[in-house]
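DATA SHEET
Item: assembly model
Revision: 1
Owner: S.N.
Input lines:
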Amino acid sequence: MSVVTAGVASTADRAGGRRRVRWVASRLLGAITVFWATATFTFCVQALMPGNRAEMIINLASGTFSQPSAAQIAAVNAKYGFNDPLIVQYSHYISGLVSGDFGESYQAHRPVIDIIAEQIWPTIQLTLSALVLAWVMAIVLTLATAGRQGRVSSFVGALQVAIAVSPPYWIGTILLVIFAVKLGLFPVEGNNGLPGLVLPSLALAIPLSGFIGRIIREEFARVLEQPFVMSSRMRGMGDFGVRLRHVLRHAVLPGVTLSGWALGALFSGAAVIETVFARPGIGGLLVSATSVRDIPLVTGIIVVSAGMYIVANLIVDLAYPIIDPRLKAA
Amino acid sequence: MINPPLLAVDNLRVSFGRGNEVVKGVSFTVEAGRCLAIVGESGSGKSVTARSLVGLAGQGALVQADRLSFEGRDLTALPDREWRRVRGRHIGFVLQDALVSLDQLRPVGREIAEGLQLHGEARSRTERTEHVVRLLERVGVPEPTVKARQLPHELSGGQRQRALIAASLALDPKLLIADEPTTALDVTVQARILDLLAETQARGKALILISHNLAVVSRMADEVIVMRRGEVVECGAADQVFREPRHEYTRRLLNAVPSMHSRGTRLAPASAPRPSLPVQPAAPSYAENPLLQANGLVKRFRRPDGSLHTAVRGVSFSLNTGETLGIVGESGSGKSTVARMVMALETPDEGEVLLNGAPWTALPERQRRKWRRGISIVYQDPLSSFDPRWTVERVIEDSLPKDEAHRRARVTELLELVSLSNAFRIRRPLELSGGQRQRVAIARAIASRPKVIVCDEPVSALDVSIQAQILDLLGDLKHQFGISYLFISHDLGVIHHLSDRVLVMSQGEAVESGDVDDILLRPQCRYTQDLVAAVPRLRFALAA
């Protein structure tokens, strides 16, 4: 009997496993398609930009605004392949992306990928720590107050709305004045390890925790009304136990869906915060690259950011069934 | 004093906020090995009473009692920590509809193990797993080791309800409270769950059964409490309450249960005299073409994983003028798909439906539209088929044929026909009770003076006394206008009360059809026999 049972189970598991592999493969393929579309779009934008690129490169290199000679322009055009048909330029661009070659910065004359690699790590640190902090704050507040009646609960609900709509740079400035300038607890600026990360992460995390908090809070209150919560209470579980072990898992699902988007938003929000706190990072790099029209660098940053965004959403997609195992069967 | 009763409740009162008392002084005792049933319609306070017994009446509830004791131990003014030790260990609780009563993100086995963990039993993981498998085996779940690892939605409704019972039995409590444990289940599954509960009781457990279903109660209960609006209107030994009800409300409840005995009679005491309108002859006429004819209907659906599922496999029937054809079957038997095909909302893959002897489903929708007024439908839940922003007047007016003159007067007439006063014109669906909503749905269905009305479980969501009124109303309309019904229901009592002929469906097939008495009293087919046998009946005939 037990042998038969095990046989049935393993056949089902194998079929489920195949489905899962196919599902993961389709998600991966989708992510690659989106990435390709983004890269193509970015290429089209830079190809359609007005102005003579060769002239711009020469001016950038010399730091002057003069009319270069035809011979100079011809040389630059030949070097960067600007005279080639667009389709040739496009295929160079795409094959470059595939092999990790994003071209060379007009200004610094170094490979774009190297410049980005130097600057991206502080930004990733900032974004991830902000995401984690936002989740921790949202979960703590939700667990403690969601679905309860009373003044504290409605105050927390209102507070979450207020912080969700506050701009990060404003919160950042306030944090900076209070904790760095007045109290001197954290450094005012720069990238100096963990203490330097606290205030910028908080500035990004606070509005996001308001967002996530509002979403999981409503879901939390809805799930609390479900009969299975009552079932569990009837078995002797306490109020907090039910919140933590049963309801939270259901309530975080919409928040998890949101996190893919949130990571992208944090990435762009980081640009502003990096300026406020004078941190190194991809945000500052993008600002300076745009102002001098260093097109390969700008393109590289956009493509890499898009890549991060796509990877974040892919991770969310793949992580979702761990929290909601019903999706594995579907 | 001899041994105290297992559970003693004296003058239990529960209120939510000031002046909103929902339980007004309920008293009873339960002894080991006995079954007490609390019967009542929605809003009677039966569920709140049950939940107060485990200290979970709800947020903001004020619970008072002169006595609430379990095994002689006082439970009034018990702090929450102590209550948690009582729940699960001493008193088990089974809720209805196990799909939503089990955490859908966790395997069934973990739900069952939860109680063991909470009360510090079976410490190691293997010990717990073994215990869970034993419990699932005991409540009759097949392949318990496999099922314990599955998620609730992967189990059938009956298996889920069993798992839920297993979870509440995990710590071997002396008292089991079951709140509508079979309400969402098919009759055959219901019969097996009731068997399981009876078995548990036979093993010496006390059982408190909360139900709106009098037949279920009469099968299980030793003592009965009838509740209405928070008060106990009658209590006593089950055979006495069912055989010689003393209270008029109990008698009305018992009379309201539709069955073969109630055929041709009114189920509810007539309230307002009905408006007398020209009565049309309503005798079924079999001579001419049948009004509605279905020939070999087949419908297939594609499942999410791509495989084909045949929901209806070659179903044929005919409906004559002034006749009621009942279609009975359990969930998933394909009866609602048949209704959708008859309404031409779904195109059959094979076969066709003829209306008045002429093609109906075979027509293109454009040509069908002008005939649509001849056939209409009443659903189980009218709320989801009403626009919540529309008033009752607009809902009904919208269904009047375009050429109808005197529209306002006609709406008034229709409201009168379904016994709703003119004041309801300006109400919106959410401001109506379930019975009132169903009346509006019926008014809408008869607005175009149809010859056929398809009724898809029209009384399944209603309390028995409201159900009685709606069934009476449908009967009246049939007499008055000679309407024919295609009446779909899972309730054999309702079918027997109302239908002239019946069609039994199982897994997409019509297994048996014929005169309602022939089929339901002398079923030939095995499936029908099982179905009929599974129906709980009032155990005691009402003394006349």
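QC remark: The CA atoms of residues 276 and 326 of chain A lie 44 Å apart.
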